[in-house]
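To the wet lab folks,

You asked to see what we're planning to order before we commit. Fair enough. Below is the target structure as tokens, and below that is the sequence we designed to fit it. If anything looks off to you, flag it before the synthesis order goes out.
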């Protein structure tokens, strides 16, 4: 546990924090497997949001283009990762004109 003391005017704030492992999902207590899936989904959702914004689409228009239910599509754009699979996200990105590449590398073990 780290302790950081900062001064704001006459008020001293003590803030406790822990150093991150580098993976927010691991830090939140998810297993290694769950963390890997959540990380991939999160990165793909960010890519979908960027593609929708870049094409200047409304969520409804983007959902139609992706052959997806508007409510599900909108909930995923708001971060509901449990509402979608990795396969669905990659299909949506393809419908939005993106190329999805998968890169695999050996993890560094400590």
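Sequence we intend to order:
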């Amino acid at each position: 546990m780290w302790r950081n003391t900062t001064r704001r005017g006459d008020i001293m704030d003590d803030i406790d924090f822990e150093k991150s492992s580098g993976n927010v999902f691991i830090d939140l207590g998810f297993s290694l497997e769950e963390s890997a899936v959540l990380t991939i989904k999160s990165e793909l959702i960010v890519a979908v949001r960027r593609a929708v914004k870049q094409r200047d689409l409304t969520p409804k228009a983007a959902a139609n283009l992706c052959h997806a239910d508007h409510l599900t599509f909108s909930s995923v754009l708001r971060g509901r990762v449990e509402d979608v699979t990795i396969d669905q996200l990659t299909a949506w990105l393809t419908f939005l004109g993106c190329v999805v590449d998968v890169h695999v590398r050996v993890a560094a073990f400590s």
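Structural context that might help your review: Strands lie at 2-8, 11-17. The chain has one domain: 2-95.

Thanks,
Computational group
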